[in-house]
Amino acid sequence: MYKRILVTLDGSELSEEVLPYAEDMAEKMKSEVVLLRVSPPPQALEENGRIIAPVDEEMDRIAIELGEYLNRIAYRLRAKAIPVRTAVKFGDAAEVIVDYARESENGISLVAMCTHGRSGIKRWVYGSVAERVLRGSSVPVLLIRSSGAKTE
User: Fold this and answer.
1) Residue 117: inside a domain
2) How far apart are CA 143 and CA 115, in angstroms?
3) CA 49 and chain centroid, separation
4) Looking at residue 129, which CATH number applies to its domain?
C-alpha cells in the first residue's frame, strides 16, 4: 500500500519515536524508507568583520553532519532488511517536507513524523511543523504523539 515512507527527523529523541512505527509498516508492506532531515539555511560566519566560513562551506559542513546522523539510523533499519535512503535539505521544515513528498520523482506515498505537542504560546511562537505538514501534504500523514508531548 505504501511503497515509499518519508520519515522526518529533527535530531531529537522525541522525533525518533516514529521509527518503530515506520519500521513495522515498512517490514509488513515491503516499503522503502526515506529518512529526511531539514535544517534552516546557514548564515556566513564572520569574525572581526571578515567572513571566516562562507555559506557554501557551512552548508557542506552541516549536510555532512546531518547525513552522518541519518546514516546511523539507516544502518539500524538496513540491519532489519528495510531498504533506506537518506536526504538532507535546507529551508523551512514544513515547506521542505511538503514539497519533498509532493515531488513525483521522490515517489512518497506516506509521511510519518512525531509531534512534539507544543501548545499555547510555544505553539504560537514556534508554530507546529506537524500541523503545517498535515494541512499541506498531498499524501497521507501518520502523526505519532511523542512521549514528551503534553496533553491539554
Assistant:
1) yes
2) 6
3) 34
4) 3.40.50.620
- Helix axes of 129-136 and 93-102: crossing angle, nearest 10 degrees: 30
Top-confidence residue, 97 or 55: 97
Report how many domains make up the chain.
Answer: 1
Residue 102 confidence (pLDDT): 96
Q: Does residue 152 fall inside a structural domain?
A: no
Give which of 106, 98, 107 is closest to 136, Cα–Cα. 98
- Domain assignment present for residue 35? The answer is yes
- Percent with pLDDT over 90 in the chain: 67
The CB density around residue 43, as the number of other CB atoms within 10 Å, is: 9
Domain span at residue 71? 4-145
CA dihedral (118, 131, 103, 43) positive or negative: negative
pLDDT category of residue 124 using cuts at 50, 70 and 90: very low
pLDDT in tens, 20-39: 999 999 999 999 999 999 99
d(CA 110, CA 10) in angstroms, rounded, equals: 18
Q: Of 133, 125, 128, 110, which is closest to residue 32 (Cα–Cα)?
A: 110
Q: Give how far Cα 117 sits from Cα of 57, 123, 124, 146, Å.
A: 34, 8, 12, 7
